[in-house]
Amino acid sequence: MAAIAAEHAHSHDHHGPLHHQFEDLEQQNEAYLVGMWAFLVQEVMFFGALFLAYTLMRWQHPMDWYFAHNELDWKLAGVNTFNLLLSSFFAAMGVRSAQLKDRKGVLLWLAGVLFCCLVFLGIKYVEYSLKWEHHLVPGPSFFYQGEANPGVAQMFFGLYFAMTGLHGIHVAVGLIVFGILWLMWFFRKPIVTEDYMPTEMCGLYWHFVDLVWIFLYPLFYLIPHP
Amino acid sequence: MSHSNDHAANHHVDSVGTYVATFAALTVLMIATIAAAQVNFGHSIVNNIIAMTIALLKATLVIAIFMAVRRSSGLVKLYAIGGFVWFLLFFIAFCDYATRSWEPVKGWYGEESKVVPDYPHVTDHPGERPEKHNSGH
Description:
The structure holds two protein chains of two kinds.
Chain A: H1 2-13, H2 25-60, H3 62-69, H4 74-99, H5 103-133, H6 150-186, H7 190-193, H8 197-221
Helix pairs in contact in A: 2-3, 2-6, 2-8, 3-6, 4-5, 4-8, 5-6, 6-8
Chain B: H1 3-9, H2 16-37, H3 44-66, H4 74-85, H5 90-99, H6 131-134
Helix pairs in contact in B: 2-3
């Protein structure tokens, strides 16, 4: 009994960010990282199926794909690309502040990420509502009068909405994740202030969202004439 | 907290300059993608290769520096690379599609099947539901 009590007192002393099942912080951080990367790789596979569908359709109908893509606004999406790159920079700086236990820095940089999230979703809303008004949303009201085969054009917009929509859902989730993270830093929750890894995990998620867009932007908005 | 724990918690902090330089490089590459898309290089394949090469460069910068994989353990690096190795499996799907015309089979739309049929416009009046949806009642 005494030994158990001593053990308990011992583990209590050493609590802090290190959880009892790990030998040291290095091992714990490695477990965090590998777990997060396993999640990110399955996300890559999840998006990968859509990238495969995209590649096959564009390969089979290069001309129609080019004509259909002319309906998209590459300038507006370019602003969003820059916006996401900037948010990734903010997230990296936020994680850096967390490593230095600089609470004010974290709050500032994470607020930047949240702002970019909102700008991204706002621009996406403008883009989607224009497509809706132009009857380019696949379904019964789809009406396309351009040069592409209307069936292929509908397929193009189906993939456009599926891929940018799935990405958009990830941005919205990022808004929630970073909102909660910001609040935890604001209320000085020890789970985030004593250990930078939770902030790092959120950062990794956000960089992944940025990575997907880095590929989506040229694939949907900058298609060359075949 | 012991000294070794303290050391592990702050194993390495990159400088602000590293992150600023990475962000600047990403922005320059983004402008390069947009600029390259406006140029006709003779064949669209060249444009596609340039666009995807720049995207891969950007992805490498984000993964190596922002996601700090260059400082991570071998196992984390393996995971990061594994996510891309999966794309090589696209090749198997492409083999199927590339060789479908070699063994013609009767398709859903008659003898000469197409992957996507030339179906007519659903309605002549944008915004209205097509006839078949209204005729039920």
